[in-house]
Design brief:
- The protein folds into two domains: 141 residues, 3-Layer(aba) Sandwich (Creatine Amidinohydrolase, Chain A, domain 1); 235 residues, Creatine Amidinohydrolase (Alpha-Beta Complex), CATH 3.90.230.
- The chain has ten helices and 17 strands.
- Strand 12 and strand 13 form a beta hairpin.
- By secondary structure, the protein is of the alpha+beta class.
- The N and C termini lie far apart (55 Å).
Length: 388
């Protein structure tokens, strides 16, 4: 039986991405680019595999010729997910860096200026040294930012995938809220979230779900560990569904109790929600990220002296690869980033306010930047959910 070709996007979309990357290559004075990270390679080729440990390399010339080097064991994933007709394969008994050098030579790049990916997901310092010896005639430079800047602005097809992911996330939020009750273990809530998302059609998620209840909701980056939920607890959920590698993360918070939530929790949740509204209102093309962050920061100031907050008002999301759904693209909505937003950038806005070791009031949205402002992808409301 022939392996079906199922890339996440059309051939034309991948070619358009390659055109933009090659334009940036030329502007930076490079003749070619060597990529090693799964996210950047997937973005340009469609290659999608759970194997994030074996070596692969995409060699791209500034004139748009390219070759994808993979371990032969990965051929099936290549044939199923990549738009490229054939890969260059190496075996377990070959030095893949020799193959890279040979391919670079065949593309006429070994005497030129090459951009090499060495950041997160790229090659190690030792591998870089070994490769530089094999490419001794080439002038090597840093590739960081060349593909990442193109990835910052999503296509309509990418956003469509994220809308599907958002529907899956919403199903997980609703299931998580439904599972919360006195005496329920935090892992039972996580199980309900996972079951709902996977039954709704989510693919393997890159991270989470996170469930932190009671005092653990007041400790950043905590998750379930067997804590049993009690009346008066805040319960923090952070999760995403995943569709064709694309994500749409959310933070939501519930309060369990027949009595009203404490005033300090309600105030923090209202502040978190108000900051989100401000971010959505201000996030328009051409507005500096610092201006958006400053406006939301003024809202957070209402409770800033009583809570723990990270001062990161938004980070880019799109493709999700373990161990995080955060895309490391070098652009954040922070007060020290004065670059303007662009239409169809997508950010997760984590307005997480915590009283250290006591409670958390954490709400977020994943939004698309549009001329009308930020548009949330999810439908579940960003508010403190009261569960009696």
């Amino acid at each position: 039986m022939a392996i079906p070709r199922e890339p996440a996007f059309s051939r034309d979309e991948y070619l358009a991405r390659i055109d933009k990357v090659c334009q940036r290559l030329g502007q930076a004075g490079f003749d070619g680019l060597l990529l090693f990270s799964a996210a950047n390679i997937t973005y340009l080729t469609g290659m999608d595999t759970e194997n994030l440990f074996d070596f692969q390399c995409l060699v791209l010339a500034a004139d748009r010729r390219l070759q994808h080097i993979i371990l032969d064991f990965e051929l099936g994933r290549f044939l199923n997910s990549s738009w490229i007709s054939e890969p260059i394969q190496y075996t377990a008994f070959q030095d893949p860096l020799e193959v890279v050098a040979s391919v670079a030579h065949d593309l006429g790049l070994t005497a030129g200026r090459l951009a090499i990916e060495t950041g997160i997901g790229g090659i190690s310092p030792q591998t870089y040294l070994d490769l530089s010896r094999k490419l001794e005639r080439a002038s090597l430079g840093a590739a960081e930012g060349i593909v990442e800047r193109v990835r910052l602005v999503k296509s309509s097809a990418e956003i469509d995938h994220m809308r599907v992911a958002a529907q899956l996330t919403d199903s997980g939020v609703r299931a998580g809220f439904k599972a919360i009750g006195a005496g329920v273990a935090d892992y039972e809530v996580a199980a309900a979230i996972s079951q709902a998302m996977y039954q709704a059609g989510s693919q393997t998620v890159c991270w989470g779900p996170i469930v932190a209840a009671g005092y653990r909701s007041g400790l950043a980056h905590s998750s379930f560990n067997g804590y049993r939920i009690q009346p008066g607890d805040t319960i923090f959920l952070e999760l995403t569904g995943q569709h064709r590698r694309y994500v749409a993360p959310l933070m939501r918070t519930a309060f369990l109790g027949t009595t009203p939530a404490p005033e300090e929790v309600r105030m923090a949740a209202e502040t978190s929600a108000a900051a989100l509204s401000t971010l959505l209102e201000k996030a328009r093309p051409g507005v500096p990220a610092s201006e958006v962050a400053t406006a939301a920061g003024q809202i957070i100031q209402r409770v800033r002296d009583r809570v723990v907050f990270h001062d990161n008002f938004g980070y880019p999301v799109g493709m999700g690869y373990p161990p995080s759904w955060l895309e490391r693209l070098g652009f954040f909505i922070r007060t020290n980033n004065h670059e303007p937003l662009e239409e169809n950038m997508v950010f997760h806005l984590p307005m997480s306010l915590r009283m250290l070791g006591r409670w958390g009031a954490c709400l977020s949205q994943t939004m698309v930047v549009t001329p009308q402002g930020g548009v949330p992808l999810a439908q579940t409301p960003a508010r403190l959910e009261i569960i009696a």
